[in-house]
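This section describes the prediction task in plain terms. A model, or a person checking by hand, is given the sequence of a single protein chain and must write out its three-dimensional structure as a string of tokens. No templates, partner chains or ligands are provided. The sample shown here is typical of the held-out split.
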Amino acid sequence: MAALIELFKDENSYLRRSAANALGNQTTLSDATIAALVELFKDKDRNVRWCATNTLNKQSTLSDTTIAALVELFKDKDSSIRWSAANALGNQLTLSDTTMAALVGLFKDEKSYVQWSAANALGKQSTLSDATIAAIVELFKDEDSDVRRSAADILGNQSTLSDTTIAALIGLFKDENSSVRWSAANALGNQSTLSDTTIAALVGLFKDEKSYVRRSAANVLGNQSTLSDTTIAALVKLFKDEDSDVQESAADTLGNQSTLSDATIAALVELFKDEDSSVRRSATNTLGNQSTLSDATIAALIELFKDKDSDVRRSAANALGKQSTLSDATIATILELFKDEDSDVRRSAADILGNQLTLSDTTIAALMGLFKDEDSSIRWSAANALGNQSTLSDATIAALVGLFKDEKSYVRRSAANILGNQSTLSDTTIAALMGLFKDENSSVRWSAANTLGNQSTLSDTTIAALVELFKDEDSDVQESAANTLGNQSTLSDTTIAALVELFKDEDSSVQWSAANALGKQSTLSDATMVALVELFKDEDSN
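The expected answer:
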């Protein structure tokens, strides 16, 4: 690097420029190197000056002296250097009021790309001072629409804006330039709570001649957790907008409302007939956020299972998945989706059923049929769908055990996890779980050991197999085995001795799992108690 810095003094400008460029990929430069680059800001060759400023672009932290030197370049006669200097400041997380004021000054630069660079630099500041914001608001009066738009864009990154600033942004809703109106609306998007006046002004933009302005206004309202009936009614009117993107935004915006009226839900259901699949999908997504849907709405969602667009079918399935109780007729229709040619739809259908606390034998049998699906993610979803069932039949448990041989480890793991919800497992099932202790995937071994934790009584053979897992190379598996043994009311001296040995494990979580397991035993020998005390002392000393 010293050799490159030496080239900064070479009489050949090409070499000076090349040396500066060579440093451009370094994310961290020394103070001495940065100081040398700053010296190049005075170079008579514009290309050298540009390369020097551009090289500083990747530096996340610059000193006050360096920043001051970059600000001086705002006066450079070459616009590309002014642009580069502003860019370099854009990577700084925090800028002083003086520096921000200088960047604001660049909004009046004759070159629009310099203005944009200054705007971007300010836009990355999470917090702007009142003075800076006031200066930016003044730019709303600038005759150049690009400047007005940039000024509005900057304010969009502020999480909290004063009433005065918001009022100024609302004033831009009447700007003759549609891109300015769009930016002004967007700038309000990060405000968690908007006043009734502001919301009314945004609703006023629903009549804007430009569809992207109408869409922006609708999107901004989507961040409000509670909207008035009047505002919701205005959004519903947008369902008839000539632009499908506006319709989609209006539907999406309603998705954040926890409770929608029957009239609003009916209007969303009407969108199921829209020719644009993205609109139909948005409508279904929004309904999916409602905790309770009427039979009529559920029936309409089921009809979407026949939609030609798989994304719409999947969205309809997801919307139903959030319903805690589905009728037998609805479930029967969902089962029909198991035959769909689209794997995403089959998976979504299985996922829906996973939220039901009680499934019929017929439904469970259909889910078991999916265990043979060629798509592993569907086999996984089908197994998971059984997770809420408190009691599974022997046939169902046997089918889950069959998944222990699945080629995908996450399917094997899921099958083992589901069995963990059963309070009593047969010796055959427990033996199959023990077989997973030798699985090549550590997460499967972990799940198998963890699943046995719900069994109140384990045989000596099973306990011995769990003790063998203390030698596993994965500490999580060791920990799981120890935790499972901790659920046994009585452990043999041999097992207790093996747990005490885990106190020497290099992983503290394994040590403490062993200690917790022993702590659940009603009676421990003096030697074991001494070992526990020693472990506590070691922890205190650390």
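For orientation: Residues 244 and 442 are 49 Å apart (CA to CA).
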